[in-house]
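Hello support,

Our group uses your service weekly, and this is the first time we've seen a run hang past the timeout. The protein is DDE-1 domain-containing protein. I'm not sure whether the cause is the sequence or the server load. Input pasted verbatim:
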Amino acid sequence: MLKEGRLHRSSTRIKPFLTAQNKHMRVEHVLSYIDDESHEFQSMENVVHIDEKWFNQDTNKRTYMLDEELPPQRDRKRKNFIPKTMFLAAVARPTYDFHRKCRWNGKIGIWALTEKYVAQRSSQYRPKGTICTRNIESIDREVGLDDSDEAQFSYSKITLSLISRRWTPTSSQLGWSIRLIFQPPNSPDLNVLDLGLFASMQSLQYRIPIYKITDLIDAVDDAYKTMSADTLDDIFLTLQSCMLCILKEDGGNQYKLPHMAKAKLRRANWF
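Update from on-call engineer: The timeout came from a worker crash unrelated to the input. Re-ran successfully.
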């Protein structure tokens, strides 16, 4: 029946279970981005998306080779426990800066939740006294209070608490109005980073051989810098498409995202 065309193959992914309260919060969140008079989406140019993600050092890969070639050797001590590191990223929608006469790419920064330490003993990999990098095992409110360039950040409510303590007191003096808005629970489709940016960065990072944590940090940082402003802007358009589908589904997530042909529209100068 599959060869005859009577059946077709389709792949599905598991989505978060939503309660009635979750659906109500999702609808309210979407409506907050719609203008009451024009009933159109706001530009979202004043919104910053912040989220965290675990980046694995390696994964199973598919390789294309000639008949006489051998696949590259890749091994780990334990296949089920591949090292990983958590990163915190912040992005906004790319916009044109009229003061500098250029386009801002929307990238604010990405930070690894790691710490530096001094090796107390010598080993076959490094001598005693070497400055090494490791993951932060315990995230608390004290993490992220360092004002140096290597300041670390925590996640979830702790992250918002740190941002509030850092920016809220000074924002009013600078003429800013900063509000911290929580993402609705069980709603990865309402965050630009979860919606596509992290997955795109992960695919770029997997192309680079990684053997230690510093290699992973460099690879993720390079993938973040490689992401173009058009790609980030396309994900914001996808976010608006998801919001429309959420309204049609009364807050549900069992929808099929429509294809917008964003690349074609961009070539036609619609964006």
